[in-house]
Amino acid sequence: MSKSVPTFLQDEVSSSVMSIYSGDFGNVDVKGNIQFAIDYVDQLNEFHIFIAQCKDLAIGDVKKQRSDPYVKSYLLPEKYKLGKRKTSVRKKTLNPVYNEILRTPAAAFELESRGEIKLAFQYVPQPVGGKKTPTTGEVHIWVKECNDLPILRVNKLNSFVKCTILPDTSRKSRQKTRTVAKTTNPVFNHTMVYDGFRREDLKEACVELTVWDHNKLANHFLGGLRIGLGTGKSYGTAVDWMDSTSDEISLWEKMMNSPNTWVEGTLPLRMLMVAKMAK
């Protein structure tokens, strides 16, 4: 074992099995193994993954007969930047040696570290200019501000909020705020309006709001919430996104019971498995 391997890991590094994702990468026949170890360092409040080396990897570029491998880790259910780490690249080798530690602060996965969002809802049974006996109404969503968002990049948090009302995942259901730059306490003051909702539809629908950090290469998920009745079902079908917390349910019920009136709340952002959007 290399002397660069941390003492607390030297007895724990062992071989892994072949990737369970073999066959998911085009014509590459995934093979080889990886030596690694995991540890939680209480003094640092960090989760560590020590990547030692890989052996007998597949050739990634068949034409050039070479591979430039690196190792990437995710801590599920977090799939975005808060839980993603990777090693440096080792060029032209099928047996790369890394001896690197991928560190993730435990705070990245604590609920309170995701911040909170202040917002208001209103159900308007009869839009202005509508019929005397309306068949559908509008859901108004007022995204006011967020507070104490997690910092991904020093002084470079550029956040915005996405919204969709499930089960509709089409493009017409997607709305978003403007991006507010360089602050963990962005003020949006943005109102979104969704029409075509009967009162009975409110029992089956769920507002999914997600907060993102924007940069040129990719948007990174910061946290979100789902406002609905949290029944686990929508129109009789079991769905995983109907999972509202008690506070989220309470706000939705207040809106349903107070038509034409704004109901306001400040709710903690949480980790979500974001609903898959239709193309």
Automatic annotation (TrEMBL):
InterPro entries, per the entry: C2_dom, C2_domain_sf, SYTL1-5_C2B
Gene Ontology biological process terms in this record: exocytosis
Pfam families noted in UniProt: C2
SUPFAM superfamilies from the UniProt entry: C2 domain (Calcium/lipid-binding domain, CaLB) (SSF49562)
GO CC field: exocytic vesicle; plasma membrane
GO molecular function: neurexin family protein binding
Subcellular localization, as worded in the UniProt entry: Endomembrane system
Record-linked SMART domains: C2
Principal place of residence: membrane
Database matches in Gene3D superfamilies: C2 domain
Domain C2 residues, every copy: 113-242
PROSITE patterns: C2
PANTHER family: BITESIZE, ISOFORM I (PTHR45716), SYNAPTOTAGMIN-LIKE PROTEIN 2 (PTHR45716:SF5)
Full protein name: C2 domain-containing protein
Organism: Sphenodon punctatus (Tuatara)
Lineage of producing organism: Eukaryota, Metazoa, Chordata, Craniata, Vertebrata
